[in-house]
């Protein structure tokens, strides 16, 4: 299958206003706000976010944040669990950075005012989730960890008078110099605040922290703003994107019926960490014998087991049984999930919870080195939009918030060595394009069927053919819906190129026509790029065999 060709830049009005700042941070989740708070010591900082500052994926994180905080735990054990979950494709040095710097990053959060749940003696209460062999998950408000972390970070940013914030704004494309280095960004402010319409921000460095791609799929745990904007922007700017085929489907998302679309309620892995277990429609447990950790196996193992069970029984969901928790445990430990279930007519204290896998997290993204630098000079990335090498083929539960914190700190530390010089934007000769927003539901259906949990050459090819036709439907006029749709088809095209190329099953990538892991031929990463100066560009996938850490550092 040849991946569908996509526009080289977004069609948009010429900027009607300009501004300048030392560092632009795109995104306001844990990664973006952490980066902004650290970068403010180096120069002027502007945070740009698509909705209100607290609207991204961070606030929805239920399970917690993983770090070796227990005296009986160690970074080495956390490293081992992460490498196992990554199915041979995690970068060991990147993981070592994560697990050794992680505890201090969590302590930084506490210093900022984040309040984690504690035991009677005041020590942080640590739970366990899938793939972890130790209790190392710090949580807040029972199952409201992301919301508490976001609260603390938003409060700190609003206290920082030297951080500017533009809400309700979509960053469109990078402005680059003649040599391809960052010179600024174009963005559209959607009628909120003092600025309006399309403008340009001149800047010395851009930090991408724009989140994931969940809206590629019909059912996802991601919010509506997760339309792959940062990954699409980076591709159009010539950046390298890595491991995009590894999309993690969370195994236990509340099943709301066949017609449910968009963001779905998550039933955290921490529920299984506290002793809940999966059963089929006959009440039979099916995870025993699948993995040594049974119901607490890594997410790809559990998601695949659920899909196999659904296929074998002809059902469209399975059940999670946590009735033995009792009312008090549900109210204290999982108040958010309890309220969510009851709002949809399910009482988990007395009833089984219907669950099915849904798109949850992109393990791949814009390639970075260990300092968060991408392959475009002056462009940095952290959080879900980035591929630091930590997650490999499958993210270990609760490593995502930690990764955002750790690599945001590393970006600021690298920039502390000297911000890049301000560059002059070159004339952009790329052909602009824009896709009709009406294509999004059909795109989501095609990606769910052809590039979801179960994949094959035939399914991927069919999805590619559908998306190729959708790209031919142009938008009548520029605007946020068309820009988001164009970003979605761009990321979908790149994902399909990677998923088609990788002819094996590994981690979160399951090819039913290539059901085995193949270390002989596929022990390495797939890098995706858009070739320059074509009217329509086709994402190109290049296989990079695993060699050494030096290769990772220098790309």
Q: What is the radius of gyration computed over CA atoms, rounded to a whole number of angstroms?
A: 22 Å
Average pLDDT confidence is: 92
Low-confidence stretches: 548-555
Strand runs, count? 25
Class inferred from helices and paired strands = alpha/beta
Q: Determine the N-to-C terminus distance.
A: 27 Å
- Number of discrete helical segments: 15
User: Shape from CA axes?
Assistant: globular
Helix content: 25-40%
Q: Tell me what portion of residues adopts beta-strand conformation.
A: 15-25%
Described by strand count, sense and barrel closure, the largest sheet is: 7 strands, mixed
Provide a compact summary of the structure:
By secondary structure, the protein is of the alpha/beta class. The chain contains 15 helices and 25 strands.
Textual characterization of the structure:
The chain is α/β, with parallel strands linked by helices and 555 residues long. 32% of the residues lie in helices and 20% in strands. The protein is built from 15 helices and 25 strands. The protein has helices at residues 30-39, 75-85, 92-112, 145-159, 229-236, 269-273, 299-313, 326-333, 335-343, 400-415, 440-450, 457-471, 480-501, 519-522, 549-554; strands at residues 6-7, 9-10, 18-26, 45-48, 65-66, 126-127, 137-138, 163-166, 169-176, 182-189, 197-208, 219-220, 241-242, 247-254, 262-263, 277-279, 318-321, 353-362, 365-367, 379-381, 386-387, 432-433, 524-529, 536-537, 540-545. The strands form seven sheets. Strands 3, 4, 8, 9, 10, 11 and 20 form a seven-stranded mixed beta sheet that branches. Helix 1 runs parallel beside helix 10 and helix 12 runs antiparallel to helix 13. The chain is globular and about 65 Å long.
